[in-house]
Amino acid sequence: MSDISASVSRDYEPTFGDYFALLKPRVMSLVVFTALVGLLVAPVSLHPVEAFAAILFIAIGAGASGALNMWYDADIDAVMRRTAKRPVPSGRVEPGEALAIGVGLSGISVVMLALATNLLAAFLLAFTIVFYAVIYTMWLKRSTPQNIVIGGAAGAFPPLIGWVAATGSISVEAVLMFAVIFMWTPPHFWALALFMRSDYDDAGVPMLTVTHGRRATRNHILAYTVLLAPVPVWLALTSVGGPVTLLVAVALNAWFLVGAYKIWRRDEVMAEEDNFKVEKAFFRFSLYYLFAHFGALLVDYALKAGGVV
């Protein structure tokens, strides 16, 4: 990590919005939603106050991870178009402040989740923060093209943590919710990397598109999408699933497979001629993929609670 503290304007006073942006609120929204689903569909119900506290501290832990990531990745973020306007590389927040916020919120979130729910949930939250901030951000991201494959585990833990917060244990259903996000992450990010390759090139990040080229990346997107497709179907057939989850799993993954196949069969001439239209469409769809799957779990949960199914 390079020292960019000199780039911070001493005349600029950071706003609440600047500090909030450190927490990666868009990522946090997905974390909160999937953790909430994991908590609600669990066979053990928490008191509403305990449930609110659990989701709040999971969200704070996710925000802490984001702040630590922005602190360490400031040098990379500064040269990438997609991230150059983040609070640290843009000079709105000093690196030391980002580090202090990340470390402080990490401690608060883990301790308070332990007090609000149980030690296993707190341990998993602590492991997730360390995994994302240290193993992924500081090591994998800069050292291997498999960065997003292994590092994707960090984003897959929230529903598992939500489940454990309610039950105090891990089950097949929780592992499958984890697996859906874990297997979705590589094709999601590789689709982005196909049309943002120059950013990763400039930043020196060994994304698959940089180290092995776009053809290999297209092959990997198709392979991982094929491996992903049966996982949500399996989840739909467990105790937390139902007809809505099954229908959504079949429909969305059929579309996802078609999209991955379209990406696979294209060459770079075709892609560049239409400005990566197919790849961008696949990436946009992938943004809604998880919300739709976990939303379906919530619908089936509501139907069961209402005695409909």
TrEMBL record:
Q: Record's NCBIfam families?
A: cyoE_ctaB (TIGR01473), PRK04375.1-2 (NF003349)
Could you list the residue ranges that cross the membrane? Answer: 27-46, 52-72, 93-115, 121-140, 147-168, 174-195, 221-240, 246-264, 285-303
Recorded E.C. number(s)? 2.5.1.141
Q: Which UniProt keywords apply?
A: Cell membrane, Heme biosynthesis, Membrane, Transferase, Transmembrane, Transmembrane helix
A Gene Ontology term for the protein's cellular component:
plasma membrane
Q: Which organism is it from?
A: Boseongicola aestuarii
Q: Which PANTHER family match?
A: 4-HYDROXYBENZOATE SOLANESYLTRANSFERASE, PROTOHEME IX FARNESYLTRANSFERASE, MITOCHONDRIAL
GO BP, sorted A to Z: heme O biosynthetic process
- Role played: Converts heme B (protoheme IX) to heme O by substitution of the vinyl group on carbon 2 of heme B porphyrin ring with a hydroxyethyl farnesyl side group.
Q: Which GO terms describe its molecular function?
A: protoheme IX farnesyltransferase activity
Q: What class of enzyme is it?
A: transferase
Q: State the similarity comment.
A: Belongs to the UbiA prenyltransferase family. Protoheme IX farnesyltransferase subfamily.
Q: Which Gene3D superfamilies match?
A: UbiA prenyltransferase
Query: Which pathway does this chain act in?
Result: Porphyrin-containing compound metabolism; heme O biosynthesis; heme O from protoheme: step 1/1
- Cited HAMAP family: CyoE_CtaB (MF_00154)
Q: How does it sit in the membrane?
A: Multi-pass membrane protein
Provide the protein's localization: Cell membrane
| Reaction(s) catalysed by this chain's protein | heme b + (2E,6E)-farnesyl diphosphate + H2O = Fe(II)-heme o + diphosphate
Per UniProt, subunit arrangement is: Interacts with CtaA.
- Name of encoding gene: ctaB
Instruction: Report further notes.
Output: Carbon 2 of the heme B porphyrin ring is defined according to the Fischer nomenclature.
Q: What is this protein called?
A: Protoheme IX farnesyltransferase
Concerning InterPro entries, the annotation shows: Protohaem_IX_farnesylTrfase, UbiA_prenyltransferase, UbiA_prenylTrfase_CS, UbiA_sf
